[in-house]
Amino acid sequence: GQLRSSVRRAASFARAIAPRGAIIRRCMATNARAQDKRVSIAPYFTVPSENMAKFKALFREFYKCVDNEPNCFYYGFTVDEKSGVVFNRECYDSAEGLIKHIENTADVGAQAGALCSDVRLEIHAPKEEAVKLEAIAKEINAQIFIMDEDGFVNNNMETGKPDTSVSIHPYFKVAEEKWDAFVATHPEYYKLVKANEPDCHMYCFSHNKEAGIVFNRESYRSAEALKNHIENTKPANEIADGLFESVDLEIHGPPAELEKLEGVAKEIGARLFVADPDSRVYKQ
């Protein structure tokens, strides 16, 4: 009788706290939230079809190098087979961390580059870190994007496990005369994401004013979390509507998650990049 009573009490307690799950996750995300001061390099490798298998075979060599880099937060390849483009989701704790990574992967990077018909490079960093990267950016012909100071990271990726996150990569083309007005909409997005999206990993706008491009480094726990984000930020999108000339969209993630997003991707005109299963999260 006492055992049944204990089980009933435990079941009642579980039912009572179930509706609070989202609130608990939101509180955890809020407590772990910090300004995003991390540095990322965004490489887009265009690989001819006859070289794609050879390029993919180099993934494991890159991972071997990066496994020994204490400055790396996460690292993993994604592939858009239709366009023949390979991307790398990667992030470092400082300008120094990124420079060490470039040096550490120089040999395998040269092998990969020889298999490409084109390589486009971007560096996204806070202003104080970007200054330290100007020389190497010039050397490797990378565009520099300055990160917005209000961008944040929730520190809720699972370390020591595969990177199964879903990220959307928006590139807004903004005319000079509308630049300030578009940037002024950022707080509306931050407010909505902070209030309603506990499964967001990171969210930070970055700018290359010379090229007239605004990017957003953002990532989510799952396809469902990204769908929630798209729905949640509709009020901010209405404010930003008409303030940019065009937007190029990409969605990166594991195949099982991308399958759930095919309808959304078609609706918003986003390219899909399939994440390599060996993608990994090293630290928060």
Model description:
The protein is an alpha+beta fold and 284 residues long. Helices cover 42% and strands 30% of the residues. It has helices at residues 2-17, 21-32, 52-57, 59-66, 95-104, 106-113, 127-132, 134-140, 179-183, 186-196, 223-232, 234-240, 255-260, 262-268, and strands at residues 34-35, 40-46, 72-80, 85-92, 118-125, 142-147, 152-153, 161-162, 166-173, 200-208, 213-220, 246-253, 270-275, 280-281. It has a ten-stranded mixed barrel, surrounded by six helices. A hairpin with a 4-residue loop joins strand 3 (72-80) and strand 4. The protein is globular and about 45 Å long. Mean pLDDT is 92; it is low at 2-7 and 9-29.
